[in-house]
Amino acid sequence: MTVTPLPEPGASRQDKIYNFASCLIDSIGWPLGMIFFSQATILPVFMKRLGASDFEVGCLSALLGLLVLLPGFLVVRYLGARKRARGYLIWVAIVERLALLPLALLTPLWGLTHPSWLLAAVFVCFGCHGLAMGFNQPAYWVVVAKIIPAHWRGRLYGFAGGLGGILCLVFERVLNNLLSGKDAGFPNGYAKGFLIGFVILVISVLPLGFVREPSSTPEPRREQNLFHDCMRVWRDNKGFRRFLYGQIAIVAASLAAPFYVLAAVKYLNAGPALIAGYTATLGFAGSFGGLVWGAWADRSGNKIVLLTSMALAVLAPLGALAAPSPALFYAVFAALALSGGGVGLAGFNIVMEFAGEAHEIALYTSMYNGVTAIPRALAPLIGGFLAGASSSYALGFAISAALALAGLLLTLRVAEPRNVARA
Q: Which CATH number fits domain 13-214+225-411: 1.10.260.40, 3.40.50.2000, 3.20.20.370, 1.20.1250.20?
């Protein structure tokens, strides 16, 4: 059976441009706002200041992995029965962002007096944030698939990356000032950063509530349940199944993600200014990388972007093992950002193309999220356990490189869904 391409959104060119601009604002604001809550740099150091162990740092990433990826299955039928997903998308997105606001308020109150309370609040706030994201992620991809033509999606995230990269240069100075203040910016500098990130996230998501989403025909009611639908896709779509195998490996390779910055602090004496620089590098490289990834994916397909991104995921932990100075860790964080951005952009584009039909997108994205949820949750726990047990981050970096290489080799067997028939 051949892949049926998603129909071009049934709207005028003016509507498409308006929708593109609305999604562009959100696509710039999301990574820009989240650099103030970065799981790779800001949160690990913040949690360490609160007395968290390496294992607890890993637990936060594990919690987010489960909560972001699993709930999508619960809304597949609901979204498939709706003519439009825009209203659902924006309201859940607002809840998702409001969950982060208490951190800006509680950090100056409890940071010095009740650090254990604040550490618990970090888990609660990000737990609520992740749960809302999990319920909302399928809706986001349904809306994007309906309002952004397939040959515009790469440039959407590419343009967003380029503009976001420029803004990251500005915000590097903001982060540096916040983290280098009195007592290394703790707790007031972090609180201000959380507030700035929250405001950016809220303002930038509002245009999604006004996109011109065309009405679609609800999914026909069937006797089969969700489990049977998933088994149908798993059985019939060999290309998608092979793609998922590679994604499981590359997701598992994230076990070292929270510990790069902690390794730089522990072994190379990286201070607040360097931490701010690493965070800005993540945003800058990821953003400008998106510009390249998007153009390349539109022109040559998503598979080549996915493979190149996975190759960078192999190089990043190897670089961390070899980096002799804090300055060279900039290259490590650049590779991490480029890899994560490319895997995310190409991966979700491939999922939409494998789906073929608009009403199948929620099912396919939920399957992708569900299959990768367990390794995404276990990876940081294993990374934290390895770091604590060995008193070193080197073993985790080595295993991360091996898993990324396995993901790369598995993905070589995946056919580009844009050009060939389903096997």
A: 1.20.1250.20
